[in-house]
Amino acid sequence: MSFQELKVHGTHDFPLELYHIEESHPKYEMAFHWHHNIELIRVLKGSMTIFLDNRKYTAKTGDLIFVNSEIIHGAYPENCIYECVVYDGLFVPNLYVRGRSFSEVTASGQIQVNEYFPAENDDLHRFSDGIFDEMKAKDDGKYYRVISMLCGFYGVILKDSLYIESCGEISEASQKLKIVLKYIREAYENPITLYDMSQIAGLSPKYFCTYFKRLTGKTPIDYLVTYRIERASRRLINTDDPVTDIALSTGFNDLSYFIKTFKNIKGVTPNTFRKAYRIPLI
User: Disulfide engineering: 88 pairs with which of 15, 123, 258, 282, CB 3.0-4.6 Å?
Assistant: First the structure.
């Protein structure tokens, strides 16, 4: 979602959570957001274009993406299946190396781990694959094995110097984008114009379009429409609300336009989507 994510991942005792994402998933297209947690993204099939602040990568089968704390990120998958492990960076064992805890400085942003690791990095992927695979285990011993794999993963990063020192400052471009994304999240139900968004960013509408597309890969209006459709898709599978009500409550004042736009983005009509992926209410 396009906002600062405050969701708790995992549990208080084990703050790690695994997400498996296929094309049918309502969050298949990763809307732009940021969070204090660290995130590992593993591409199992296909490819995705992922944006991390103002950096763009194309990740293919077997590739790994490391999302550092507080980094704005979003992705456009293509025929893709991918998995994410989101975790509290402070959960990694607090071991001191050269007078400081590597897990603490990574979690705080003083260290920025390299973001893109292609599939051929065998040493690192041995541990990262272990994290994902052990998270799927059913036995209680998995918790110790996941921690072991996390330690091995950080050990390779340290050994091979797969990181850089960071000043910890957020770029002006990222600050402006966060303000706009937060505004979209809070006001998407209401009419929003290009001028409204450009004013929030403190930029002219023309420059704002160029700036926004450079950071997200979409124009502001395209992104707003896609975000509204994602919100609508969640309502379709989680509620019994009429399609008309869902359209109106997600910023669409014309039902036929909503249905046409939904089908262009999701490939099916809202009713077909609801029937295919409906979560039964208890």
Answer: 15
Query: For residues 59 and 176, is the Cβ–Cβ distance under 8 A?
Result: no
User: 112 Cβ partners below 8 Å, 6+ apart?
Assistant: 68, 163, 164, 165, 166
CB 206, CB 149: distance < 8 Å: no
**How many residues appear in the chain?**
282
pLDDT tens per residue, range 64-103: 999 999 999 999 999 999 999 999 998 998 887 777 888 8
45-69 per-position pLDDT tens digit: 999 999 998 899 999 999 999 999 9
Read off the amino acid at residue 220: P
